[in-house]
Write a structure and sequence with these properties.
The complex is a heterodimer. Chain A is an all-beta fold. Chain A is built from no helices and eleven strands. In chain A, the strands form two sheets. In chain A, strands 2, 4, 5, 6, 9, 10 and 11 form a seven-stranded mixed sheet that branches. Chain A has a four-stranded antiparallel sheet with strand order 1-3-8-7, with no helix packed on it. Chain A starts with a strand and ends with a strand. Chain B is an all-beta fold. In chain B, a hairpin with a 2-residue loop joins strand 6 and strand 7. Helix content of chain B is 0%, strand content 53%. In chain B, the strands form two sheets. In chain B, strands 2, 4, 5, 9, 10 and 11 form a six-stranded mixed sheet that branches. A five-stranded antiparallel sheet of chain B has the order 1-3-8-7-6, with no helix packed on it. The chains are: A mainly beta, B mainly beta.
Amino acid sequence: DTEVTQTPKHLVMGMTNKKSLKCEQHMGHRAMYWYKQKAKKPPELMFVYSYEKLSINESVPSRFSPECPNSSLLNLHLHALQPEDSALYLCASSQVRLAGGLGANVLTFGAGSRLTVL
Amino acid sequence: QKEVEQDPGPLSVPEGAIVSLNCTYSNSAFQYFMWYRQYSRKGPELLMYTYSSGNKEDGRFTAQVDKSSKYISLFIRDSQPSDSATYLCAIKPGNNRKLIWGLGTSLAVNP
């Protein structure tokens, strides 16, 4: 199984709503990532979990709250979002380290959750 | 100066053409170089990665790194309509630094 599965594929929410994005992988990867991607832009790193612990937070606003319940699951909790937060949210996973140090570079992405904030 | 520069295109070629996609980077210490392909409404998928100067070939795809010029390329031979996608270069500077992405080049291969 070489997939990263993200749900939901599409989400529309109001600025007062609370919702969650979910990500699951069964490749045995111990690093998991949330990226945000706007149209015609590259992915922008938000959070990194390594061995289920938050290792990188790229100064993301607190209205985005990540959670890693176990080594296969990654959630992104959303609350009081703004219209400018509308984007494609991508989950990715990787091995933490391979010989030669390449493991952390080889990301497997999910198809993304397309979020629209009204 | 941006750390990684990539012309966003769009690039339009006829089926069967050889496609050349390129990125330049600013820091000679950068170590690992990757190409990702992203179809519309999908996440990026890794096509090729390399960490040394020279060529790496995989089927119709060849990745080339010239560290002396700080220039990386992806060549697609016998391009197909199914190659129509956005191609993103990504560079890993070294340990403990995040990937640096190019803007992505939008490619259309016309039948």
